[in-house]
Design goal:
The chain is α+β, with helices and mostly antiparallel strands. It has three helices and eight strands, in the order βββαβββββαα. Strands 1, 2, 3, 4, 5 and 8 form a six-stranded mixed β-sheet that branches. A two-stranded antiparallel ribbon has the order 6-7. 26% of the residues are buried.
Length: 156
């Protein structure tokens, strides 16, 4: 039996002057009316044998259409999401303009099993949020990443 699906992503943060993190809302009709508990860090599945950091950087670019800002990268470790998916996250301090996002797209069968497909954005919008705002928006399995980031920054 195969192990859990594995993803990697970037938790981008800035201090302006208070801590804010960048989170994205998934595109497509399934997520269109969902808000609280639906957002995510930019992330995606690892390819076979791929380094998690390489995957996180690749996925950030694919999902947002922008490179990861240059800065120190800190490994936040892994978290488990619902349905067993494991996400490895890396924190990077940097800034970007949410209006500059050019999201990647993918083909989706919709409605399910209809035989019809539509092109949808991987992320339909992004927002800078305080950690408390992000805790409300993020998928529950990703919320511990905020605690880890805050602990790291508190420790200097």
């Amino acid at each position: 039996m195969a192990g859990p699906k594995r993803s990697a992503g970037i938790l981008l943060y800035r201090r302006s002057p208070a801590l804010e993190v960048l989170v994205g809302h998934p595109g497509g009709p399934f997520w269109a009316k969902k808000d609280a508990g639906a957002w995510s860090i930019p992330k995606g599945e690892l390819e076979e044998g791929e380094d998690p950091l390489d995957a996180a950087v690749r996925e950030f670019g694919e999902e947002l259409g922008l490179p990861v800002p240059v800065g120190p990268i800190v490994d936040l470790g892994e978290v488990a999401q619902n349905h067993g998916k494991v996400v490895r996250a890396f924190a990077v301090e940097g800034d970007l303009d949410p209006d500059a996002i050019v999201p990647g797209t993918f083909e989706l069968a919709w409605p399910p099993r209809s035989g019809r497909t539509m092109t949808v954005p991987e992320i339909d919008r992004v927002a800078w949020c305080t950690p408390d705002e992000a805790r409300e928006k993020l998928l529950p399995g990703q919320r511990p990443l905020l605690d880890r980031l805050e602990d790291l920054l508190a420790d200097g």
